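Thread: "does anyone have the structure for this chain?"

Original post by V.I.:
We have the sequence but no experimental structure in hand. Need at least a predicted one for the grant figures.
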Amino acid sequence: MTTIAPPPKAARRNGRARHSSRAVSGRLGTYVDELGAARELACVRGAGGTRLVIDQGVGGARLVAHIAADEPASNARAVAQMYLTAGRSRRCRSVTQADLRSEFGEGASPLDAAPVGCGHEVNSEGSAAQLVDRHGCLYRLQPAAGSLSIPELRWCRGINGRVVPVSVRVVIGAVEAYEPVLSLTVAAVRRHDRDDAVSVALLRAEHERASASPIVLNRRLREAVAEAIERREVTASEIAIRCGRVRRGPRGIVSGETSWLMRRIGQVAEAGQEEPTPWVHSDVLALIAREGLGVSPRDVEA
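Reply from O.Q.:
Generated one for you, tokens below.
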């Protein structure tokens, strides 16, 4: 991929990132701003395997998105494409040294321990960098009408010109990753906690429920099962049998209930559902991990 320069110098006390030799993993596109200046979108490798989508050119580098290490590399290009088509509605802040050092860890992000300088910081209009799921639906934080007299800051899904408020859990399930959804939510709650113009009560409650729920993502479990089968360490039938899911054929032949396993790991849809679920109960995840694969549940938690 094309090698381009990291963000320009901005060695000031305001915390903006200085020019460095940090490697850049790809050029994502170019455009001309409203003042006629050429700008370039680049994907920069961040801390802990994260990737930063940066808008750079005259006037400094701006952070478009901070993508978690476990997200598909294609998300960087998808975010860049949405940014390029946004036209004059593009809004993002300057890149800081904190962005280059920040790692988006897996799992829940407690509200009282949120990193102030996380990469998807909500701006003054209450919006954030957009996330995209595998179906092309867009998700972003923005004010939405609710049951209160003031707008509520919510995650909203946009598809085919329609914008609908959805819960934190729905967004996590759609992108099949806790981060950066939880970090973005935390940043929004912290920023608007004392804002009289918008309520974050529901957003805070949704974050707490998503963080404490025993229903967890099954993506890493699905990947672990697929890898074990591909390496021929075990078959899907053997995993099911180890988990106590056994069926007997008409001649008394014993086999594992592979349909149960495929549904639990999100490989096939439940009866009556159009798509596989991205969720599994933590007890079932632990059963499949320990008994079926012989690994620690922590190794397959998303």
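V.I.: this helps a lot. The chain has three domains: 1-103, 106-213, 216-300.
O.Q.: and Residues 216-300 form one domain.
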